[in-house]
Amino acid sequence: MAENNEFIREVNEDYRRDQVAEIWRRYSALIIALAVLVVAGVGGWRYWQSEQRSRAETASESFETANRLVRDGKAEEADKAFAAIESQAPAGYALLARFRSATETAKRDQAAGAAEYEALGADAKLSNGLRDLARLRAALIRLDLPNPDPALASLQGLAAPTGAFRHTAREMLGLSALKRGDYDGAGRWFDQISADPQTPQNLRQRIEVYSALVAGGPVTVTEAVPAPAAPLPATR
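Request: output the structure for the sequence above.
Response:
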């Protein structure tokens, strides 16, 4: 019986070797090609990772250089540095450069800076949160320009109940109404802030002051009636 088992085992091994040999004969070229592709893929992936790391390090250095130029007051050179980052750096640093460039532009030209932020807000490739942030920054800049109506319209959109920046938008809308003497409108915006359970605590504290101003209403200044002049002393 043992001899039979040994014979069967040897036959099975021979059969398996014949099968492997046949598979190799028929598919050796494909197997080699697949092996080459796997090796090349792993090598390519590692090269891509190394390249991305190198680009990120270069972009980081370029971004720091641009910031240093800003601190040194070299605005024109800083603008060129940020523009180069926007066009050549990886997406993350390019986006940082666009935001920083808009900030620096607004310091020199508010309308131009607001326009750069609005371009970011209209960029469909950005996330909704970043687009809303750009719209908010543009609106805050335009509030100080001669025609604040576009800024107020943008803030109203950002003040929606689900807006990520609704608290800031509502506060700015309330203060703008207060500045115009629209106490009812200001009160409505401040009431929305108070009713929102997610309003930050520091904003709630400011709302107490704003609400007191609204409750006080406009201050009427009346012209004081001058007191009669004292009689001159009699002369001898």
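Residues 159-215 form one domain.
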